[in-house]
Write a structure and sequence with these properties.
73 residues
């Protein structure tokens, strides 16, 4: 016998249908915010690279930053 008393969870069956729907919406919002934050941050890096005098690196960073929106949005 085990000395551990672990509660057994049944998953999301005990939640109302509305709560399960809200968690999916929240997950999509988090993913969108992460993508926007990464795009903004890489845009700043690209602008800095262009301002320093590395236009090819800046354009490359900008193109790589737009790929998540192309494939995951």
């Amino acid at each position: 016998m085990s000395d551990f008393n672990l509660p057994h969870y049944a998953g999301a069956d005990h939640l109302p249908q509305d709560s399960r729907h809200r968690s999916g919406i929240a997950a999509r919002q988090v993913r969108r915010r992460v993508l926007v934050a990464s795009a903004v941050a890489s845009g700043v890096v690209a602008a800095g690279a262009i301002a320093v005098g590395l236009p090819a690196a800046g354009i490359a960073v900008y193109l790589v930053a737009t790929l998540p929106f192309t494939f995951f949005s």
